[in-house]
Amino acid sequence: MACIIGMSATTLCPTNDYVPKGIAVIKSNTVNGLVRFEQSADGTRVVVNINVTGLVPAGDHGFHVHQNGDLSDGCMSAGAHFNPYNQTHGAPNDTVRHVGDLGNIIADSEGKVVREYNDTQIKLSGPNSIIGRAVVFHALVDDLGKGQGEREQESKKTGNAGARVACAVIGIAKE
């Protein structure tokens, strides 16, 4: 991560005692809203706050952080799930999972999602920061790496969450 040093020698990059905040602004043809991320002061968790509309059909949708913040080819250029430790796909509370595996979110009958929860594997600073990567909402329920039979191999990579319906780059939020 590049740091900017201002005229007064102020460094504009996270420090050890800095509590960073991230934001992804979702603006697609149908899905709109915000995903906010806030690192806890002790660095043990990130609070994820989702507030989006237009996610259809009602029900569970896979929600992940993907490797790249490149959206030049829409959500497809975001790459695979963020997986710096080369693990298999899993549920948010599994010890073995991609860092970017954030599980499922539930859209109500009007396509709205309002949810806040903690995640202990994503970080907003350091070598495995999610800043500059992409959040992706998927069309289908994520099977959390538990798929069987002919779906097992893809389950271990993607959770069989289906098409990418909306995405955004995670940026640094203003204080």
Automatic annotation (TrEMBL):
Gene3D superfamilies: Superoxide dismutase, copper/zinc binding domain. GO terms for molecular function: copper ion binding; superoxide dismutase activity. Its EC number is 1.15.1.1. Binds 1 copper ion per subunit. Binds 1 zinc ion per subunit. It comes from the Eukaryota. Signal peptide: none annotated. Residues 31-170 form the Superoxide dismutase copper/zinc binding domain. Keywords: Antioxidant, Copper, Disulfide bond, Metal-binding, Oxidoreductase, Zinc. Belongs to the Cu-Zn superoxide dismutase family. Destroys radicals which are normally produced within the cells and which are toxic to biological systems. This is Superoxide dismutase [Cu-Zn]. It comes from Oppiella nova.
